[in-house]
């Protein structure tokens, strides 16, 4: 499937989910969610997003340095804000990350290595998110708690399968699987940061997951949900897990997941949609610095100079 087909598929899926929600619940929860957003919620989202973006930027900088591509922390923060804004506003959920990797690669003259740094950066974040989500879902009651033992076993089996697959030698040396295996092995053994650096990467990733969960809890409170945090935390992590899937992005999938989870938890689908809308508005406002980075980059983009020299040559020839 091509990149354009995936983008169209994400957009169509988002429209279908939102259409079903409006058909079943009406437009009320969406309008209520927008009206409920206040200045305190927006300020909290901006502060938490600044903290999580700093953690993400430091993680990306550390991984990129291990792969041999230099990146300053200020550049990483600006690029990460831009990436978040693009991911929030464009269907697919990975457009900003691709742009981040390609832009950094062009700056350092190695697009392939810069893109690998972005892939490892996202992998570190996703791994921390999955691990913390599994721990919380095993410990706290949630609509999926009964299925968590089987899910944990399945995840362990999948990890073992990936490790065995990476250790196995592919039949062909020029196949895409062989190239991926060699690139991953090279990055792990020679490029990625030392073990002590991975402790910091893991801590930064955990802080990012916690920041997003707290932002969702604030959105729920803003939407009028009075359930205790112990009941809301598993829902927050599950919604974050759904919206982290690159094939779905955030449009529609967040509201659909929140509606189902809130309904299954006895909180009402309308409250779930309203919370999803509040969270969406909070994140859009919190990532607006990324739009400013895009505007500044556009104004700083070199303009093509006018061909003044050929004109001088022609005028001299006529003279």
Write the SSE topology.
Blueprint: H1 3-25, H2 28-36, H3 39-66, H4 73-89, H5 95-108, H6 111-139, H7 148-167, H8 176-191, H9 195-222, H10 229-243, H11 253-264, H12 269-286, H13 288-300, H14 308-318
Helix pairs in contact: 1-11, 2-12, 3-4, 3-6, 3-9, 3-12, 4-5, 4-13, 5-6, 6-9, 6-10, 9-10, 9-12, 10-11, 11-12
Question: Could you please describe the fold and organization of this structure?
Answer:
There is one protein chain. This protein is an all-alpha fold and 319 residues long. The chain has one domain. The chain is 79% helix and 0% strand. It is built from 14 helices and no strands. Helix 2 (28-36) packs across helix 12 (269-286), helix 6 crosses helix 9 and helix 6 runs antiparallel to helix 10 (229-243). The termini are far apart.
Sequence of secondary-structure elements: HHHHHHHHHHHHHH
Query: How many domains in all?
Result: 1
How many helices? The count is 14
Q: Report how far the terminal alpha carbons are from each other.
A: 60 Å
Q: How many beta-strand runs? A: 0
The share of residues in helices is over 70%
What is the compact description of this entry?
With 319 residues, this protein is mainly α.
């Amino acid at each position: 499937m091509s990149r354009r087909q995936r983008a169209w598929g994400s957009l169509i899926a988002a429209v279908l989910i939102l259409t079903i929600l409006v058909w079943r619940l009406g437009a009320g929860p969406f309008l209520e969610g927008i009206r409920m957003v206040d200045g305190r919620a927006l300020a909290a989202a901006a502060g938490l997003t600044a903290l999580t973006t700093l953690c993400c930027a430091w993680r990306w900088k550390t991984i990129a340095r291990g792969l041999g591509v230099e990146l300053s922390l200020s550049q990483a923060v600006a690029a990460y804000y831009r990436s978040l804004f693009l991911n929030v506003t464009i269907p697919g959920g990975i457009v900003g990350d691709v742009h981040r990797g390609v832009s950094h690669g062009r700056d350092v003259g190695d697009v392939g290595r810069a893109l690998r740094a972005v892939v490892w950066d996202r992998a570190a974040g996703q791994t921390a998110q999955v691990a913390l989500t599994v721990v919380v879902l095993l410990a706290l009651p949630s609509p999926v708690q009964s299925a968590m033992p089987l899910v944990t076993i399945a995840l362990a089996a999948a990890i073992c399968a990936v490790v065995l697959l990476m250790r196995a030698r592919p039949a062909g040396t020029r196949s895409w699987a062989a190239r991926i295996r060699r690139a991953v092995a090279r990055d792990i053994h020679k490029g990625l940061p030392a073990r002590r650096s991975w402790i910091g990467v893991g801590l930064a990733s955990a802080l990012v997951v916690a920041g997003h969960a707290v932002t969702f809890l604030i959105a729920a409170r803003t939407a009028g949900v009075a359930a205790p945090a112990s009941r809301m935390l598993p829902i927050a992590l599950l919604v974050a897990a759904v919206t982290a899937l690159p094939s779905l992005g955030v449009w529609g999938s967040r509201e659909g997941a929140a509606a189902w989870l809130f309904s299954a938890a006895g909180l009402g689908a309308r409250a779930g949609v309203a919370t999803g809308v509040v969270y969406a508005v909070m994140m859009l406002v919190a990532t607006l610095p990324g739009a400013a980075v895009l505007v500044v980059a556009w104004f700083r983009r070199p303009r093509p100079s006018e061909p003044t020299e050929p004109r001088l040559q022609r005028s001299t020839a006529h003279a």
